[in-house]
Write a structure and sequence with these properties.
Elements (H helix, E strand, L loop, with lengths): L7 H5 L14 E7 L4 E3 L10 E7 L3 E6 L11 E4 L3 E4 L8 E8 L3 E11 L6 E4 L3 E2 L5 E4 L4 E6 L7 E7 L6 E2 L8 E4 L8 E8 L6 E11 L7 E7 L4 E7 L8 E7 L4 E5 L3 E4 L9 E7 L8 E6 L4 E4 L2 E5 L4 E8 L6 E7 L5 E2 L6 E6 L2 E6 L9 E9 L2 E12 L7 H23 L1 H13 L3 H17 L6 H9 L5 H18 L7 H22 L5 H5 L1
Parallel strand pairs: 1-8, 11-17, 26-33
Antiparallel strand pairs: 2-6, 3-4, 3-7, 5-6, 7-8, 9-12, 10-11, 12-15, 13-14, 13-16, 16-17, 18-19, 19-22, 20-21, 20-23, 23-24, 25-27, 27-31, 28-29, 28-32, 30-31, 32-33
Helix pairs in contact: 2-3, 2-6, 4-6, 4-7
This protein binds 2-acetamido-2-deoxy-beta-D-glucopyranose (12 copies).
Length: 546
């Protein structure tokens, strides 16, 4: 067939008259399309000199029209152009056939024209069996599934159907080799089969073509498990909730809600939500639900529970002058992980301890240690505050660091002195039991001396009592008070404190005092810290700190 492979130029003039005739002797072939107008030339004579008469050759020639104006045309659809060519309006399929024109000169010359009428292709119907249709009409299927493609169109003569495929960012290529089948099946769809599928129906006679392009997406459910976590954004102290569900295409959707209650925190494709402190409280739970178009119907979910930090730290530590001491702060329960800071509260409130050769700070997980190297006699004593902070809450715990005299003062001498003082204390206690005035006198006597540690303790004790009895201000009043009611329990408290003072002065003399010292330190620590913790956010911390 001459029109089997239409030239591109011809394809460009789709819809125009496709009048192409191939000279074969005096014979021509003209191709027209239904509903179009068609002009059949009478031979290749440009200049007509004789009378032209047109016939239609069926079983016998039928007169159509003549250039003799006295003979009317057989049908009004027929007319003569340039006094020789036959013009047919609105072609129909019945017009297909052989036509003959005769030019009458001295002798009649005959020309034959074969008119072929093509129609279509009309509507191209594509059917792709897929998993589903997106709201915007795009088809999608899932990886590994089977997809059936079919394409149908009607034309005369019957159309040639071709499938073409275009992957993203690549050029269109015929599907398979010379694939003119209207149906085919793809097994095991994969990502590289995602793209635009085009069914092309071609009328080989007219060269007219019509195509339908369908975008087919190949979706894949996530391969991994849904993961979610909370983290603290440095500096801003915002809480960032993150949800991940990797390996799927396209990206899943994430919904973060508060649990229980289901108040929506946010929905996104990223799975990241930012929360400020006002939205947070200790123990609150957040749930992330991931949903994927190709994933399980119910999606996947996970829950995070945020917790403010809890702290464990020694309430009291001692450091030998010239020695090293390590303060430890253990953070537990914090989610997300807390930021741990050491603060110094000696002269200025809340000064952050910066790492240096003197202060070595190291953190392992949620445990931080502050090592003070080469303790100095005056500078290092005081409160050290460990602060743990996450977006949910802040906790602080203070450690009292007291200095001790150098190591030479320890040992046997220290022990002997300790025992002597212990004895003295017991005697004092017994005396006090019978003469409370002595207790006060002894206290004053000791205070008169330059004994820093004792002073600290007695002062604290006084403070505590002063708080209980706010009315007493003058020392005279205090004297009276101490003289009168101090019987029984208060006396013993006085003794206990003296004993403690004794150990405090000379403590750490040997291994066997270690446990006693620890207990004593804890006790004093609690006493000392009580006012602090009244002011602090977590009054229970002192007992926790033990
Ligand atoms: C065919 O010719 C008639 C009259 O000459 C005209 O009205 C009509 O628009 C033409 N149709 C086409 C499709 O060209
Ligand atoms: C007409 O066609 C004939 C036969 O193909 C050819 O010999 C002749 O030269 C043509 N005349 C013109 C004017 O093209
Ligand atoms: C068509 O009719 C003409 C005139 O009668 C005749 O010469 C010619 O052979 C016919 N052609 C066909 C194919 O029948
Ligand atoms: C034209 O047709 C008429 C009527 O059929 C006829 O009488 C006349 O001779 C014809 N003219 C020519 C030039 O053939
Ligand atoms: C009619 O003749 C004119 C001038 O010779 C030409 O330009 C035109 O194409 C012809 N029309 C047809 C339909 O052959
Ligand atoms: C027209 O004539 C050719 C031969 O010249 C023939 O092959 C063809 O079948 C004819 N067409 C019709 C519709 O009769
Ligand atoms: C037609 O006939 C006339 C006279 O009969 C003659 O002069 C003329 O040359 C002829 N034409 C052709 C084309 O044969
Ligand atoms: C339809 O939506 C999908 C997913 O959002 C997108 O990939 C595709 O390009 C869209 N198609 C059209 C025709 O907008
Ligand atoms: C079909 O393939 C053959 C060779 O593989 C080629 O010659 C021919 O042109 C192709 N046909 C089409 C319609 O692409
Ligand atoms: C399909 O074709 C449309 C229009 O050309 C284009 O926007 C889209 O990206 C193509 N889709 C793919 C998967 O190549
Ligand atoms: C204190 O620590 C430093 C560094 O680890 C070390 O060089 C020094 O000897 C230690 N001092 C004492 C008294 O242990
Ligand atoms: C820290 O200093 C402030 C202000 O001087 C004081 O109120 C607070 O009690 C101190 N805290 C500790 C643990 O010493």
């Amino acid at each position: 067939m001459a029109a089997r492979a239409p030239e591109p130029q011809v394809l460009l003039c789709l819809g125009a008259l496709l009048a192409r005739w191939v000279a074969a002797g005096l014979e021509a072939v003209v191709i027209g399309e239904v509903h179009e107008n068609m002009t059949l030339p009478c031979g290749n004579i440009s200049e007509t000199r004789g009378l032209v008469t047109w016939y239609r050759n069926d079983s016998e020639p039928i007169f159509l029209l003549s250039s003799n104006s006295s003979r009317p045309p057989a049908k009004p659809r027929f007319s003569l152009v340039n006094a020789s060519s036959l013009h047919i309006e609105a072609l129909s399929l019945q017009d297909e056939g052989n036509y003959t024109c005769g030019e009458a000169l001295n002798e009649t010359r005959w020309f034959q024209v074969w008119l072929q009428v093509a129609s279509g292709p009309y509507q191209v119907e594509v059917n792709i069996s897929t998993t589903g249709v997106l709201p915007n009409g795009t088809l999608y299927t899932t990886r590994g599934s089977q997809v059936d493609f079919s394409c149908a169109s009607s034309s005369r003569p019957p159309p040639m159907i071709e499938w073409w495929f275009q992957a993203p960012d690549s050029k269109t290529e015929p599907f398979g080799n010379n694939l003119t089948a209207s149906c085919f099946t793809l097994l095991l769809m994969s990502q590289n089969l995602q793209g635009n599928y085009t069914c092309l129906a071609k009328n080989l006679l007219s060269g007219r073509r019509r195509s339908v392009t369908t975008e087919l997406l190949v979706y894949a459910p996530p391969l991994s498990d849904l993961e979610c976590w909370a983290e603290m954004l440095p500096r801003l102290f915002l809480l960032q909730l993150t949800c991940r569900w990797d390996g799927g295409y396209p990206d899943p959707n994430f919904l973060w809600t508060e649990e229980p209650g289901g108040v929506v925190v946010g929905t996104s494709k990223l799975g990241v939500e930012m929360l400020n402190r006002s939205q947070l409280s200790d123990g609150k739970k957040f749930k992330c639900v991931g949903s994927h178009i190709a994933g399980p119907e119910s999606g996947a979910s996970c829950v995070v529970q945020i917790r403010s930090p809890s702290l464990l730290s020694e309430p009291m530590k001692t450091c030998f002058v010239g020695g090293n001491v390590t303060l430890t702060c253990l953070v537990s329960g914090a989610y997300p992980s807390a930021k741990i800071l050491w603060l110094r509260n000696l002269t200025q409130p809340e000064v952050v301890v910066q790492p240096s050769s003197h202060y070595v700070i190291s953190q392992k997980g949620q445990s931080s240690t502050l090592t003070i190297q080469n303790c100095s006699q005056d500078l290092d004593e005081g409160y050290y505050v460990c602060r743990a902070e996450n977006p949910v809450g802040v906790r602080e715990v203070a450690t009292w660091l007291s200095k001790k005299f150098s190591l030479e003062h320890r040992g046997i001498v220290g022990t002997i002195v300790s025992l002597l003082l212990l004895g003295l204390a017991i005697v004092s206690g017994l005396l006090l039991y019978y003469s409370p005035v002595f207790c006060w006198k002894l206290g004053n006597t000791i205070r008169g001396q330059d004994m820093g540690d004792v002073m600290v303790l007695v002062d604290e004790e006084e403070e505590a009592e002063e708080e209980e009895n706010a009315a007493e201000e003058e020392e005279e009043e205090e004297k009276k008070r101490r003289r009168k009611p101090m019987r029984g329990r208060p006396h013993r408290a006085c003794i206990a404190i003296l004993v403690v003072v004794n150990f405090e002065r000379k403590g750490g003399g040997g291994e066997r005092y270690r446990n006693i010292n620890d207990e004593r330190e804890s006790l004093i620590g609690c006493l000392l810290h009580a006012p602090y913790w009244d002011r602090a956010r977590n009054p229970g911390m002192c007992s926790e700190g033990n």
